[in-house]
Structure formats: C-alpha cells, structure tokens
C-alpha cells in the first residue's frame, strides 16, 4: 500500500460539511461513508474523514476545540492562481469563511486561507518551483 494521509476532523453537521468539501473539489468515497462519517477525497494520497462529534468521541476523550480556534492549517496545492481564488470563493459561498488571513503573494507562490463550517483552517496554494528565488524561499 502506498503512503497516504487521512485527516480526521470533527464536524457538527455531516451533510453540511460534505456539501462544503464537495464544493471545494473533494469527492466522496461511499465505501467509507455512513451516517456518522464521510470520506472526502482530494487525491489518491489525501483523504479527509469528516466525523460527527459522537463518532469523534469514540476515538478520543480530548475536547473538540471551539470553531474560532486554530490548531493546525492544512495546505492543498492547486493547479494555478485562478484555482486558488476559486477554492476561496467556493468556501465563502458554501458555509465557510474566506480570507481568514491575508492573502500571500510571493510571485513564485500564491495562497489564500479559509475555514470550513466548523472552523477547520485550510490554505489553498499554487507554487511554481522553477521561479523560487535563488537561496530558497522567503517568507
């Protein structure tokens, strides 16, 4: 089996979250989806498991952070700048929050940060590795 990542996220409303991730370009894998969880696929290697709060609590007793907190920012690569903007716009139009941080434009890399309906932070980005300045990226 190849190496993959399954990001597990607690969600308040499974159907709303599934629709949100679908609007960003994820697809649902019905083999790992039921009334308590949904597997949303970004690529062959990246899957997001949306878990109802009740399902989440079967895995851990740790508290679910409030929606206005930030524990981690997950970054998804996009084909171009327009795709970054489209993902950000889709987030805003489908129950999420766009531009939760200032947009970053470094010439060789462009990104926007957004939050899903439960406040989980994502960053869509495009990068042209051939255009990275000599000596490494600056930030």
UniProtKB/TrEMBL annotation:
Q: What is the lineage of its organism?
A: Bacteria, Pseudomonadati, Pseudomonadota, Gammaproteobacteria, Oceanospirillales
| Name of the featured protein | Lactoylglutathione lyase
The scientific name of the source species is Billgrantia pellis
Keywords attached to this Swiss-Prot or TrEMBL record, sorted alphabetically, are: Lyase
Which regions form coiled coils?
A: none
Q: Does the keyword Iron-sulfur apply?
A: no
| Domain annotation VOC: ranges | 3-127
A GO MF annotation of the entry reads: lyase activity
Q: Which PANTHER family match?
A: BLR2408 PROTEIN, BLR2520 PROTEIN
- Is ATP-binding a UniProt keyword of this protein? no
């Amino acid at each position: 089996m190849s190496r993959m990542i399954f990001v597990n996220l607690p969600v308040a409303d499974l159907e709303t979250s599934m629709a949100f991730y679908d609007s960003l370009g994820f697809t649902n894998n019905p083999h790992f989806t039921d009334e308590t969880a949904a597997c949303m696929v970004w690529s062959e290697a990246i899957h997001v498991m949306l878990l109802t709060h009740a399902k989440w609590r079967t895995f851990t007793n740790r508290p679910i952070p409030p929606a206005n907190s930030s524990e981690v920012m997950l970054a998804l690569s996009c084909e171009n700048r327009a795709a970054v903007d489209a993902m950000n716009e889709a987030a805003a139009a489908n129950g999420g929050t766009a531009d939760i941080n200032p947009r970053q434009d470094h010439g060789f890399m462009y990104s926007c940060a957004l939050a899903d309906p439960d406040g989980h932070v994502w960053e869509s980005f495009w990068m042209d590795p051939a255009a990275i300045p000599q000596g490494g990226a600056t930030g």
